[in-house]
Amino acid sequence: MSNTPKNRTNVDIYGTPYTIIGKEPSSHVRLVASIVDEKMREIHVKNPSLDLNKLAVLTAINIVNDYINLEDRVKELEEELKRREKD
What we know:
Strands 1-2 form a two-stranded antiparallel sheet. It starts with 6 loop residues before the first strand and ends with a helix. The protein has 2 helices and 2 strands. Helix 1 crosses helix 2. It has helices at residues 26-46, 52-86, and strands spanning 7-13, 16-22. By secondary structure, it is an alpha+beta fold. Strand 1 and strand 2 form a beta hairpin.
């Protein structure tokens, strides 16, 4: 077991309160929660008939898609930097 202290952060995502426990600072947890909340509301506006489970899954898919695209972009930029360092 880790002796690292854990933070408890209360957040609200799409109208539901959650207590998130983890090592990240509360400011980081609040930022993550606000992004999830914003994305859920964005998807809901486009698809108001979705039930909460489908909305949550589509939100997760959208966020992971954004994450993968950013990872790919970081790799491209790292490769470009390596090429420029060789020149």
